[in-house]
What does this fold into?
Amino acid sequence: MAEKNISMRDALRDALREEMIRDERVFIMGEEVGRWQGTHRVTRGFYEEFGAERVRDTPISEMAIAGAAVGAAMAGLRPVAELMTINFAFLSLDAMVNHAAKIHYMFNGQFTVPLVFRAATGWGNQATATHSHTPEPIFAHFPGMYVAMPSNARDAKGMLKAAIRDDNPVLFSEVIALYPKPSLVPDDADFVLPIGKSDVKREGSDVTIVSFGRGVEWSLEAAKQLSEKDGIECEVVDLRWLRPLDLDPVYESFKKTNRCVVVEESLPMYSVGSEVAARLQEAAFDYMDAPVRRVSAMDVPLPFARDIELMALPSAQKVMTAVREVLG
Amino acid sequence: MAVEQSTTLSRETLLDWYYQIVLIRQFEERCDALYKDHKITGVYLHLYSGHEAVGVGALAALGTDDHVITAYRDHGIALARGVDAKPLMAEMMGKRTGVSGGKGGSMHLASRAHNFWGGYAIVGGHFPLATGIALKVRYMKEPNVVLCFMGDGATNNGYFHEAVNMAAVWDLPVIWLIENNLVGMGTRIEDSSGQPQLHKRAAAYGIKDGGRVDGQNVVEMYEAVSQAAAYAKKKGPVLLEALTYRYSGHGVSDKQYNVREDLASELKQWQDARDPINVLRGIINASYPGAEAELKALEDRADGVVEESVKFADESPVPTYEDLISNVYVGRSPLD
It folds into this structure.
């Protein structure tokens, strides 16, 4: 299969464009997706190529963007609703949680809600407290809606195409810091990755690092340095989907390493780290040689000033410290 | 006192509407009794008694390919849309044979086959769904309209502004039909809305103001919604306000009418002077005198249908563990 080295932004654009060409029911709606070319330029050129019917600029109405996407999906379209950034999804929360996620169940399967909510996520750009969330675990809390968070360009393309083709609602979170980062991406209109499958991004026998989204980058960097400096070999499992959550590769890895560090950009309480730690002690207690360590953002709102903002964020350095700690 | 108003509508049409209104009234009164008997359980049951002419008149103006969506006071809308009473009553009782398999309950009735997109219980939450369904109608170039019922209280929720505005910007074929029964839960319209003449809000969105209609008069409802539907299909959204009154309070938990003299007396005035059944009787008498025996026969028929629905629901099985875990996702078990 031919591959090209492209940024995550371009990979997402390819995925969206290919799916819109493939299925006329797929359309895009959101703030500034059309004439403005998309806040993060993912939909650049779409308005010109597909027209105003299929690339719909909306009013600043997050409740209605999410809710109208639900209605259009129930009625037979396949909306990709862009929430600009995940910070604004709090305004959409009711439509997402009470309607997108529950309608299929509540009416006993009479309706399906095949839609994708796209949102840019992540912090670290001095965007301050209200624009610096990575709150995907909140959305993954509820049964009925999938949550995807790719860590590189290749996964982003295959996962977004899977999300659009699936008949369930999906929150698809795109880490802003990863938009410009390139990787080899199959140049294939049918490159679709399975939903709810984790991926081992690096093999190793000493410590299992579980992560997703931007945390994978820090984890891989830490693994590289630990290998070079200390001869410590970390296995890095990228969850890719927070729901459905695939922990089988984590258990498998843990039975080999007996030690685990969970790395996430999100806040520490009620987090993916909490969930993985709980599940590991349930599923693999006898294999546990050390407490599970969690590396996350600090439990504070994000400030503006660069120096203290960075203090609150996870980093490869913090991952390395945690790995050394679980090794005692 | 009922208005003796004559109409050119056919005798059959009026008798059919009479049957539907009576069926809803009997269904609701039976639900109330079943709740007191602990046959219908749970904390929510919002009866449509008093509102019947709004739903029956409005839905008579729609075709089967048009779309209907409402809030939690949805039993009457489902019946007026032609959904069979048996699976509706089964849903009330939480039975496996209910329209929503016993998983929705009284507030979440729906029938995909009837383009009845459901009852919703987060106030205002279904407004953007109506916008989205109307978007699909436009997108697929279909000749249909979406009728979105709502209570007066829901017009003060942010969903109203966002969904109505979005449909306006896109000229979508939606009728926003406010069932103004003067009270949102326990708060009066004048205490909750800066503009208590709710239809006037149309001006704020640049959409058609359909005016205020007598919601107790099924003929007026039918005519207003017919005009609104014709306009909405051609040009875009219409905001219509129907003035009505709820006979059983907000829901089964509402005890205000038992203790407040002013409310009890207001209720009595509406029942005496503006009851939708009496209003329609008056219209039938004025237009086609001598139908008394037939009206009685229709009442008996409705009684039989409700009785049959209760029997069906009573004898139906309760949902199983398989039902508990089905339809969480399409094509995936929650246990995977």
